[in-house]
Amino acid sequence: MSLEDEWARVTRTAVHLEMRDSYIRDDPAFIAWQEGRVSDATSAYQGWAELMREATARGVVVRRARIISEPISDYVRFEYDVTDAVNIAGGELVRWLPRRRASDIPLPGNDFWIFDGAYGKFNHFTGDGASAGPESIEDPRAVRLCVDAFESVWRRAIPHEEYKPV
User: Is this model's pTM higher than 0.90 or not?
Assistant: First the structure.
């Protein structure tokens, strides 16, 4: 199923929890950002922003939370720097939670998306941050773990417009 088809199925909510300090380090957008070409970095993700605009225009509430170490890594700084032009511009709500404030939250072992509170996918990564492929989440207990973890993180996290990277 294509990414567009997957998002067309979502009717109410999508939540995404990111817990790594570094992802795909050979991503051309990340490299462009490292070289000071911020507009090239943000333009690389305009397809994503458009997909989010379409979803939010249909009434889907999209929330993204990031658990981050401080001081932040260069990759998290990149994510922070492109969030306004990509995620917020696409209609996502974004929050940041310093890792020290997440120690007592039960969390699944992987990043995830949960759609309409009913199904989703885990995002697997290699040790150096390359994608190792998604895994569907259909077991109601795993979905509930993810929903509960996300809501706990969301309540503590700092809205993007208020978070100041350390």
Answer: yes
